[in-house]
Amino acid sequence: MPEIPAVPRRLVLGGALATGALAAGMGSARAGTSEAAAPGRRPGQKSMINVPYEARDTVRVGVIGLGNRGGPMTTGWSVIPGCTVAAVCDIRPDRAKKSADALEKAGKPRPLEFGGSRDSYKELLKREDIDLVYIATPWEFHYEQGRAALLAGKHAAVELPIAPELKELWDLVDTSERTRRHLILAENCCYGRNELAMLRMAHEGVFGELTNGHGGYLHDLRALLFDDTYYTDSWRRLWHTRSRASFYPMHGLAPIAAAMDINRGDRMATLTATASAPKGLADYRERFVPKGHPSWQETYIEGDLTTCMIQTANGRTIRAEHDVSSPRPYSRINTLAGSRGLFEDYTGDDPTGARVYFEPDHSDDVWRGFAPYREEHEHWLWRELADEAENGGHGGMDYVMQWRIVQSMRAGLVPDFDVYDSAAWCSAVPLSVKSLENKGRPVQMPDFTRGSWVGKRPGLDSKQTEMPPVR
After folding, report:
1. Counting Cβ atoms within 10 Å, is residue 451 exposed (0-12), middle (13-18) or buried (19+)?
2. What is residue 13's predicted lDDT score, i.e. its pLDDT?
């Protein structure tokens, strides 16, 4: 198995690089004291807010990256009505062949195969029979490949994060505006059943005035991080040797931001980060990893628990957490509170896994199960797709996300979230680095919309529409 390439300086988050990226995206504004300045648009560059996809009969998908995420998602794309997988690509050509074989065996058209080198994806992007590029490679390749997809005239859905550096996030925003192509974060958790019901409840006033929310990614990955085959070339574990950052908070952050109408009347304004000591991976290695394993040459600097406290322009707070190094049950936290009550996920014995307490329904300081509220406020996507989604990944939200993207493209709809949302959610990664470097001082979060966040506009709380019939 080939070794992971040497890490370019731009991939080592922090230090002078993060400082430069911060300056590029935030001008000379002093953290915590004045609004971050957005770089100006180039002549002819226009906002992508409320820009619909161009309608089409069939969405032809090209998949780049066929590992633990890309492989199953390739199957997922192939079963959505009106969608076909036109091409698959991986640096390891055997993975491309395996995916193509599986699709053909399932009775689907056999996709073209690309692979064998790091640049094989460029050949895929030259194809004119691809409408959407789905990118599921290691984090260090997302920016380069996402940007290339836009420049090739394709729409793009990129796994988390769309880019790890602030200057790269700005460049993806600008490239989307110049090419008039959408690039979105493939944030499946935005389409979780509980998350979408919570969103509708927030918009229907059940919480009263929203005041705070908590979200994150708390997942014990220690065994997988030290597995020699799960993360190819140990790419994910190696990030823990490169930087102190909130690498992956978007699974919990994005649904909370959506419920708060971030970029639709409010925006994330400042971020303060703290991190615990990096103990979990070294302790696990000491107890369970043989002494001759390559990981014994590594030093882990990423804190076990990284917490970002985000203040919005309208005075709300969001706590976003990341912890993959500690022994604990899985949680995305997914908590939302307001002046009339709150919702807490990953708790209790309710079939939904969540609990609630709202006035005037409750007045005795006793938690209630979420099930009747979810039934009452079920998002139309889950009312329509629950049966089909049942066999989809991650409790069905993979299927719902893929179905909705394909439906939006086929029907010529505006995407539920856009490059501005995606960049804002992912900016917690580089900004957490800067805050940690400055001993937890607040840093300003850029306004990727360049002032358009003040206006109300549709988002994930969409009106019900039909999937166009397959001809």
Report:
1. exposed
2. 66
Q: What is the DSSP string of 25-50?
A: HHTTPPTTTSPPPPPPPPTT----TT
Q: What is the pLDDT of residue 7?
A: 45
CB 150 within 8 A of CB 179: yes
Dist. CA 104–CA 166, nearest whole Å: 41
pLDDT of residue 35: 41
pTM over 0.90: yes
Contact between 153 and 181 under an 8 Å Cβ cutoff? The reply is yes
Q: How many CB atoms lie within 10 A of CB 407?
A: 22
Query: What pLDDT does 5 receive?
Result: 39
Low-confidence ranges of the chain (pLDDT < 70): 1-36
Cα(460)–Cα(408) distance, integer angstroms: 12
Strands, sheet with 112-115, edge to edge from the N-terminal-most edge strand: 112-115, 83-90, 59-64, 132-135, 155-158, 183-185
Which structure tokens are listed for 299?
């030093």
Q: What are phi and psi of 357, to 5 degrees?
A: -150, 115
Residue 314 to residue 266: CA distance in whole angstroms: 6
pLDDT tens digits, one per residue of 168-218: 999 999 999 999 999 999 999 999 999 999 999 999 999 999 999 999 999
* 3-state SS class at 259: helix
Report the alpha-carbon distance of residue 214 to residue 198 in Å, rounded: 13
CA distance 55 to 407: 9
Predicted local confidence at residue 393, as pLDDT: 85
H or E stretch covering 373: helix 371-376
pLDDT at residue 348, as a whole number: 80
Token couple for 258:
């959506």
Q: DSSP for 292-341?
A: TSGGGG----S-SSEEEEEEETTS-EEEEEEESSS----B---EEEETTE
In terms of Cβ atoms closer than 10 Å to its own Cβ (0-12, 13-18, 19+), residue 290 is exposed
In this prediction, residue 24 carries a pLDDT of 36
